[in-house]
Predict the 3D structure of the following.
Amino acid sequence: MSPSAIVPEATFTVTPMSKSAKEKHNFGATVTDLDLNDISDVDVRHLSDAIWTHKVIVVKAQKDLAPIKQWELVTRFDPSSPQVHSHGDLKTFNSKGGLLSKSREVVGIPGAENVRLIGKGFQGEDHYGVKNMTITKPLSHDWHYKELPQEEFEAGNVRFQRWHMDAPLYGRDPAWFTTLRCLKRPTEPQVNIRWDDDSGLSMKTEPGLTAFISNVQMYEMMTEDEKKMADHSWVEYAPHPYMWIGDCKGNSNGLGLVSQGKEKKLEDLGDFDPKDVKTYPMVWVNPVTGEKAFQVHGICARKLFLRSSLGEEPRVVDDVVEIRKLLKIIQERVLKPEYILVPALDEGDIVMWANYQMFHTAIDYPGSYGPRTMHQANIASSTGPVGPNPIPSAA
Ligand SMILES: [Fe+2]
């Protein structure tokens, strides 16, 4: 019996996203003919494979999706994981989220608390039971060290906020996937995203969207020596990492931190359990395609353990200035317009991405363009990332 006779085919359609001759990103697909209010276990499996394979998918036309069904889908992707958002319950997130929860309260949808309301401006008189809420939060580039003048921003000049994966990097393992449903967003005028570094780069997109880069492509761009090093090395993240960097500022292109010595001392982070501190390989292997991603969340990295073969004693780098310099060389290569995908979302579309293979970032826009409403959900995974080589158990 052939495998296809055992596992039924997907009932939905997956179409790789088209790109212009100038674009060099190699990920992204659109999913049609699927109703997530009523999806079979077989299709959940196929959808999961589609996310791992295409890295970013946009599931079209889910306008009538019940919020609880988005959460159920997330749990069905990883049925043996603990049934909690990867950043924990709202109370913990709002008190321990540091940089992530600063100056904003994160709201769950009533009856589906793990589905988080994300957006900007007035959310309507009654949004699934959230009454008359206006989301006000600092502009996302306020986090950058180099100021973006207000009048330039109001004229539509914006920046990538912070390239990242969705990962608590303490306690729980990061979600395999994140799901983000677009309920409302402005579609015009376009914003002009500026790098505002020495590169002079910029690109234009519709407002209210999320940008992606592939850390698989980043890995492919590395030299053979760099790959050998990355394949055998690992990273130790700070305890409560977002509190640790709560006073730090970011680079204007959204990638990495400016080193000002503002990381908190470990004794100022409150209680932490050493066994919850995360140590992950530098390279994460895609369980479906076998591809390798250079997956280092640089802003939270406190120590690198570098070696280029299994038997070698690792060189420990615990100076954040050196850590950031080393990562910047590798990670900035892919931070060019031709490698960045900003998938357009119609109201009702859900974007889902392979969080273990990608970096993504928000892109702010002037409030005068109109309100934005998104529903985000992911789940701490049942098994964490797997590298090409094991980390020695004494590490
Ligand atoms: Fe995110």
